[in-house]
Structure formats: structure tokens, C-alpha cells
Amino acid sequence: MLIFVTGGVRSGKSAYAEQRAVKYHGPNGNLYYVATSHVYDSEMAKRVTAHQLQRKRSSHYWNVIEKERQIEQLLTTFHKDDVVLVDCLTTLLSNELFFEWEIEGDKWKSQFYQHDVFERLKGAFLTMKEAPCHYIIVSNEIFFDIPLKNEGSMIYIKLLGKLHQVLVKLAEEVILVEFGLPKIMKGGV
Known about the structure:
The chain has 189 residues and is of the alpha/beta class. Helices cover 42% and strands 21% of the residues.
């Protein structure tokens, strides 16, 4: 099963996704949290710490895997009855698109590179849909914010929008979380 949970920043989407993961977790499977964040400043460190504390308060044991890029490499790790929460796509895409920008400069501007990033992530989502375990992917709705005029942001937003559309098509359930309240957009709980 593939579930897509999205919402604005600090909307409660991660907490909701964790609750859903715990709900699907049974005695025969493991509970995984795939963290895609790269801690690059104090604000991100605070957010990571908050998520870690949230999981520690849970009565369930989370196997945490830190994977900033190339999430497709993990997909053979999981087995039937496992529940895998990937948090979050927005960070993962940023990590993929702008990987080694300080070394390789404007690689992210290449349409071929953008296409490769998109296709790899799309392929990972297709694999997740067909897997015998549960996947929950969390992302951010950034499309209602003030539009940014710089090229990197525009390319990123375009790719994220396309990936969201792929996930909505593939997922059995799509949930939008606003103000801590889940709104079922596709499927049902």
C-alpha cells in the first residue's frame, strides 16, 4: 500500500503520518522511519530534534534510516508487513536536485539532469506501490506561497508538482493535513 500525506509547513502532517504508520504496524513487520533531512543550520537541527522526540514518545520502536539521496537503494531492505515512513519528499528532491552544487555548479539547470532526478524518484514510487509492505510518503504543499522568481526555485517547484501528481495517481490514499486536521483527498481511512 502506498499512502501520500501532504500539507503546509508545521501543519501536523508528520505527526499524522506517524500515527498512520503505527496503525498499520503489526506483530510480523518492522516500523521504519526514513529521514531525508540534511542538518545544515540550527533551525533544521531543531526540527530534526522535535521529530526525534515525537517518535521517542511513541510506544513503538522506530528503525531510523538516514538517507538524504538515492532512496531507491533502500527499497530491497524492506519486507512484507513492514511499514516505511519517508519524511519528506520536499527535502529529498532538494537533496537530489542540488547535490554537490558547490562543486558542479549549475548541473541542476540541465534538463537531462532534471529528467534523471524525476525518473529515478518516479521509479522509486512505482516500486513502492508494488511492494508487499506499506509506504507512507510525506511532502510539503509549497505551491500557495509567494512565487519565487529565481531559476532554481522555479525548477524545484515544477519538479515537486510533477512528483506530487505521480504520487496522487499511484497512492491508494492521499491525505492533506491542514491545521492538524487530515482531509481525505483520495481513498479512505
